[in-house]
Please model this.
Amino acid sequence: MTWALLVLLGALQRAPQPIVSLRDAVDTSATITSLLAADSALAAEANRRGAAAVLEAFEPEAAMLFSGQPIFRADSGRAAFMARYGAPSVYRWRALRAIASADGRLGCTVGLSTFRNARESKQVEHTGLYETCWRRDTAGRWRIVAQQRNDSQADSSSAENERRTSWPRSATTSGAGDGRGQALDTDAEFARVAAEPAGPGPAFAHFAAEDGMMLGLPTFVFGRQQIEHVFAGYPADRYIAWQPDRRFGAASGGLAFTVGHSDHVPRGDAPGPRRYGKFLTVWRQRADGGWEFVYDLGSPRVEGVLAGS
Model:
């Protein structure tokens, strides 16, 4: 078999499969209502019983992301989670929106949070943001497969975020093949393009959905044009390095999520500080089988854990 033919066959194997009809597709509005109810019920249970109630909602192999730490698997991150959020610390949250897969099996909620950290000498209420991705189990219950908490934003969320009417839409199509692997591969390609000399702006605009949203700023950034504008003036001697963590990720019905560590670092031998973070990105499949991100939220992590580790 010739080298050229091998390359062609490899490309065909990696390419997204054709979109297929979802004969058993569900009403995404009903799924969204169910997701928001599950999120609200867990918030109420956490208010009564504390952080332990949240841990019970995680799948054991779920991705757990919260401020100041690397990414944990839920079953190995319990102690660190309780150290930050257990009593007498108080974490509260409220969903603003949900997005659902076309088959009703996967969905994500996004919203606002408040946090009082008992470890701080001066007690203040921090405001923050969160993303939670859920998967239905065999009994039809929603379980957490990934959660990102940026619990201490430098700037409070704008009231405009609660009044806004434009949000990413749910998935309406789904392709055959390994959606999880396709989303992970798309994220890896996204990272490669973002590290090029053109900077992160063009890459973020290219890989964002038309209705994509970045949650990290006081006013959520909506749409490709606004997303690219966020990176206007990004220093040419710096870049964002990241890789999706392939231990995690899920896809179903045209919706997927990926997580990973990210580093804002100098390019080459340029001087300057390094900033360490991690991300949870929600992806939606296009009609042509490709994937584009619809939500993205980061949080800081401890230094010394490199992107991709």
About this structure: The first helix runs from residue 3 to 14. DSSP finds eight helices and 15 strands in the chain.
